[in-house]
Amino acid sequence: MDNTFSSYKIDDRSLIAFIKREIHNLALHIGFTPHRAAETDIIVAELTSNLIKYAKGGELLYRANLEDGLKIIEIYCLDKGMGFENLSKVMNDGYSSSNTLGHGLGAIKRLSNDFQIYSMKNWGCVQYIKIGEKADVSLPSLQSGLNYAAIAVNYPGEKICGDGYHIKSTKRGFQIFLGDGLGHGENANEAVQLAIKAFKQSIETEPSEILRDIHSKVKKSRGLVGTIAAVDYKSEVWNICGIGNISTRIYDGLENKTYTPYNGIIGHNIPRTLNKTIVPYKKHQIIVMHSDGLRTRWNLNDMTSIVKQHSGIIASAILKENIRGTDDASILVGKIM
11: alpha, beta or left, given left = phi > 0 and alpha = psi -120 to 50? Predict the structure, then answer.
């Protein structure tokens, strides 16, 4: 299944039926029962109608995915409306802030396997929903030590994404790769997929050497930029190395460290000397990596209590405020548990 999210701007009620049908068909295609697909319809109807009624429009992102063999649909709902002043109140099943009878956000929570929501007054709202093929199945925990979420969306009008990511476990810890193929479309996608394949196959442990492996394997492609952040559990450090404009920050409480990558293009020209940056690895850290499809002038401290939220909420909140719309865009957020 593709890592990329389909994206739709919801600014007119006439789009709601179309989006419902798209996600309903996707649910049936990946193996949901008709009953579970109908429950998915209720979730999508509530999300989209709320966007029109209360936020005057917004954006819906969705994809099918596999988590340890469990088929799921993931949905992000983003808006820049007035926000919710009392989330606990609107989470009650059947609540509606107008005189209409609504299922309410409580119904979304009840019908989904995971539901996260974050809102600030006059900022808007982000919602993250996971719908499993069975309503009563607990979703598996993610990468040991790392609870992460990633969002990748196409350049408007493109059918495939030139950004990509992969996380792999190692004997010493884990490695994160985020890459951005030059430009967008088919050639950019080819470059980043070749890079991910090389990343998976590399037996090197140092990020700089892994990047050299990738460089040698993608020379016939358009090329890409990319960063690797590797954790060594024994020495309790992050080892980070990157080439090109992937933004990488590690938050530790109120402080954050920004990694500056080398200039160059993987597959075309990379520096002879590549040194890693070492950052202490601690519980409760947050790592944020994203491509230049997002602006870099954001600060988690500007969003009240956002660091306490689910990784998907953090990723979508940054995306909502900073996506450029002029390129593919991807963001990966990991919380050290």
Answer: alpha
Beta-strand runs (E) in the chain: 6-10, 58-67, 70-79, 114-120, 124-132, 146-153, 163-169, 173-181, 224-232, 237-243, 247-252, 255-259, 277-280, 286-290, 329-336
- Angle, vertex CA 332, rays to CA 254 and CA 3, nearest 5: 165
DSSP 168-204: EE-SSEEEEEEEEESSSSHHHHHHHHHHHHHHHH---
pTM: 0.93
In this predicted model, what pLDDT tens digit does every residue of 272-320 receive, in sequence order?
999 999 999 999 999 999 999 999 999 999 999 999 999 999 999 999 9
213 burial (CB, 10 Å; 0-12 / 13-18 / 19+) is middle
The 10s digit of each residue's pLDDT in 158-200 is: 999 999 999 999 999 999 999 999 999 999 999 999 999 999 9
Tokens 């989006």, residue located: 19
Cα–Cα distance measured from residue 247 to residue 251, given in angstroms and rounded to the nearest whole number: 13
State the pLDDT confidence band at 88, using cuts at 50, 70 and 90: low
Whether residue 109 contacts residue 90, with contact meaning beta carbons closer than 8 Å, is answered with no
* C-alpha to C-alpha distance for 145 and 213, rounded to whole angstroms: 26
